[in-house]
Amino acid sequence: MKIHLIGLGKMGSNLALNLKDNHFEVLGYDPNIEVRKESQKNGITVKNSLEELLANQNERKIVWLLVPNQYVDSVIEEIKPFLNPEDIIVDGGNSNFNLSVKRYQQLKEENLHFIDVGTSGGTYGARNGACLMIGGTKDIFDYLEPIFKAVSVENGYGYMGSPGSGHFVKMVHNGIEYGMMQALGEGFDLLENSPFENLDYHKITEVWNHGSIIESALVGYIGNAFSKDP
């Protein structure tokens, strides 16, 4: 399978390398010429325009967008002249789920497919194995599943349901994440203002992250920060 990737920032470039490592053909484009040059240095096949990226009219195209959500509609409008019926657009950003439902419906009328993919794991996940929450029609999910399986961490992808559900589940995920971050921040504030002096916050995070109920990646990130700046 060939993937046409639009958006070669930190997430896009790392995903491109992940796809490449998993033996998919990847063609990339970014409007920023410096980003294109950097991606090319890293071994990504880069095109200099959307028209060049999508030039081959004789194959079913998979176009994966990793652009800021405010640009998704304009990018879709720009690429539509280069797409054929049954081509697939994958939105891997943090779009509002209502807009994802709307985009699916609009593109369906033009005989184009749309899949919404909530992506978690940051740049490390994009490069080494992401967590993917996927919404859309089941037949298109099944068609793309080898790609999703290849670029995600083991058991870290799944079909959430109808169009928009991937981005809806990711929205809930983000709410939980921010709530956990707030709780952790308040917890360390309590520790800082406790009657006990010289508490070792890095040691505390290490202990918490080995068998406690709040063991998590977020605690690990905090621990890494404290190891560098106690």
Report on the architecture of this protein.
The protein is an alpha/beta fold and 230 residues long. It folds into two domains: 2-162, NAD(P)-binding Rossmann-like Domain (Rossmann fold, 3-Layer(aba) Sandwich), CATH 3.40.50; 171-227, N-(1-d-carboxylethyl)-l-norvaline Dehydrogenase, domain 2. 50% of the residues lie in helices and 19% in strands. The chain contains ten helices and eight strands. The protein is elongated, with a radius of gyration of 20 Å. The relative contact order is 0.10.
Quick description:
This protein has 10 helices and 8 strands.
Which structural traits does this protein have?
Rossmann fold; 230 residues; 8-stranded mixed β-sheet; single chain; alpha/beta; N-(1-d-carboxylethyl)-l-norvaline Dehydrogenase, domain 2; 8 strands
Write the layout of secondary structure elements.
Blueprint: E1 2-6, H1 10-21, E2 25-29, H2 33-41, E3 45-46, H3 50-53, E4 62-65, H4 72-79, E5 88-91, H5 97-109, E6 113-120, H6 122-128, E7 130-135, H7 138-151, E8 152-161, H8 165-192, H9 201-208, H10 217-228
Parallel strand pairs: 1-2, 1-4, 2-3, 4-5, 5-6, 7-8
Antiparallel strand pairs: 6-7
Helix pairs in contact: 1-6, 5-8, 9-10
